[in-house]
Specification:
There is one protein chain. Helices cover about 40% and strands about 20% of the residues. The chain contains 17 helices and 15 strands. Strand 14, helix 16 and strand 15 form a beta-alpha-beta unit.
Length: about 400
C-alpha cells in the first residue's frame, strides 16, 4: 500500500473552488493573444461531441472562456498548421499536438489489446494505409465507405481499418469535414520531432498526471485519473514524482493534490458569466462538480424524453464563480429559444439573462424567447432582464 505524503497546506472549500475556476480559465481577463490555441494548451484537452444545439461542444469551450470568438476562427485554430490532433483522452478529444508523445502509452495499449468484434477482411488495413499514402487526406467514405448499413454502429471494413490505424497512431484525424473525420498518415501530419519521440509508459503517465493537475488546479486521485481517463493505479504509480503537491481540502474527506503554481497566489480577477457546454472540462466529473459547486450535472440527451428533468441539452450557467442555473436552448431561425430555464434564486436572474443574451449574439440570433421557467414566478423578471439586453 502506497504511503501518501502528509499535506502541508489546507484549503477551504471556497479556496479550492476558486483555484479550480482559475485553472480552467474562468477567473481573470482572458488571454486573447493566445486565443483558442491558448485555451486548448491551457486545458490540455477539449472534448468533441456530435450534438450541435447552439454550436458544437468544441466551439462552446473557447467561447465560454474568451467570449464571442468567431466560429470559423475556432475551427482554424484547431486544425490549421497541425496545432491539434484528435485522440482518445477523457473521451474523443482535441489535444495540443505537442502532447502527441505522451499518448504513446495508449497507442501501445491499443496495439496490445484484442481487436474489436468487428471483422476486418484480410488486407483491408494495409489497403487503407496505401490509399492514404497515395491520395492524401480522405474521409472514410472516400476510402471506400463508412458503413455497411444505415445503422450508425455498422461500420464497413474500411471504417474499422482506418479507425484502428488511428488508435495505433499510424493515422491521424487532420480535420472534421461536415463532422466526418478526415484521415491522413501520422508521418505527414505530426512534426518529425514529436512523431519519433517515443516515451516509455512511466514518462507518459507522469506527464499526463501533471497536466491533469495543472488543468484542474486541485483534485482528488479520482479527479486526476478521470481527466485523461487513466486508471487509479496508473496515477498512484507516478503522482509522487509528478510535481503536484499534496493538500487537504476542507469537506472533501479524501486526499487531494494541487498544482504548486496554482497555490502561489490567490485567484483574483473578474469571474466569467456564461453558458457552459455539458461537455466542458470544468464539469466533466459529476462527483467533483457536486463537491466544488453543490450542483448536480447530468447530460439528458440520451435519457428518454419523459424522464428528462432539465432538458435535452441543459447548459449550466456559470456566474460569480457559482453554477446558478441551467438553460436548455434551441434555435429557430434568428431566435434563441430557452426551452426550459432552471433557476431558483431571484438574484441569479440577471446573470442568466446576460448569459442568454451573449450566447444569442454569438450565434447571430437577434431575439431570445423564454418558454418555460421551472420557478414560474421568475419568468417575467427574466423576460424583463432580457428585454434590456437583446434587440
Amino acid at each position: 500500500m502506497t504511503t501518501l505524503p502528509r499535506p502541508s497546506l489546507t484549503l477551504s472549500a471556497d479556496e479550492a473552488r476558486r483555484v479550480a475556476l482559475r485553472a480552467q480559465g474562468f477567473i481573470g481577463a482572458p488571454d486573447r493573444r493566445a486565443g483558442v490555441r491558448g485555451v486548448l494548451r491551457h486545458l490540455g484537452a477539449v472534448q468533441l461531441d456530435t450534438i450541435s444545439v447552439l454550436a458544437r461542444s468544441h466551439e462552446l469551450v473557447p467561447y465560454a472562456r474568451l467570449g464571442a470568438v468567431g466560429r470559423k476562427t475556432v475551427e482554424a485554430a484547431y486544425w490549421q498548421d497541425t496545432h491539434a490532433f484528435e485522440y482518445w483522452s477523457h473521451a474523443a478529444c482535441l489535444l495540443p499536438v505537442e502532447e502527441w508523445p505522451h499518448f504513446a502509452f495508449r497507442r501501445r495499449a491499443y496495439r496490445d489489446r484484442p481487436h474489436w468484434n468487428h471483422q476486418l477482411p484480410d488486407g483491408t488495413y494495409e489497403q487503407v494505409v496505401k490509399q492514404l499514402r497515395a491520395e492524401g487526406p480522405l474521409t472514410a467514405t472516400e476510402l471506400g465507405g463508412a458503413k455497411k448499413t444505415d445503422d450508425w454502429w455498422d461500420w464497413s471494413g474500411t471504417k474499422v481499418a482506418v479507425e484502428r490505424a488511428l488508435m495505433y497512431g499510424e493515422v491521424v484525424c487532420v480535420e472534421r469535414r461536415g463532422w466526418k473525420r478526415v484521415y491522413d498518415l501520422a508521418e505527414r501530419a505530426i512534426p518529425d520531432a514529436l512523431l519519433h519521440d517515443e516515451l516509455d509508459d512511466t514518462e507518459c503517465l507522469r506527464r499526463l498526471v501533471r497536466l491533469a493537475g495543472e488543468s484542474l488546479g486541485v483534485g482528488t486521485r479520482a479527479d486526476i485519473a478521470d481527466y485523461h481517463r487513466l486508471k487509479g493505479e496508473q496515477v498512484d504509480a507516478v503522482i509522487a514524482d509528478s510535481g503536484l503537491v499534496p493538500v487537504e481540502v476542507e469537506g472533501w474527506g479524501r486526499p487531494a493534490w494541487a498544482d504548486p503554481a496554482a497555490l502561489a497566489a490567490p485567484p483574483r480577477g473578474r469571474h466569467r458569466t456564461t453558458l457552459l457546454s455539458p461537455f466542458d472540462s470544468l464539469i466533466w466529473e459529476r462527483a467533483r462538480t457536486e463537491r466544488l459547486f453543490g450542483f448536480t450535472h447530468r447530460l439528458e440527451a440520451y435519457v428518454p424524453k419523459p424522464k428528462r428533468v432539465y432538458g435535452y441539452f441543459a447548459m449550466p450557467v456559470l456566474a460569480g464563480g457559482r453554477l446558478v442555473g441551467r438553460v436548455d436552448p434551441a434555435r429557430e431561425g434568428r431566435t434563441l429559444v430557452a426551452k426550459q430555464v432552471t433557476v431558483e434564486d431571484p438574484r441569479a436572474v440577471p446573470a442568466v439573462a446576460l448569459a442568454l443574451a451573449e450566447a444569442a449574439t454569438w450565434v447571430n440570433c437577434t431575439d431570445v424567447r423564454v418558454e418555460r421557467v421551472d420557478a414560474p414566478g421568475l419568468r417575467e423578471p427574466l423576460i424583463r432582464e432580457l428585454a434590456g439586453l437583446v434587440g
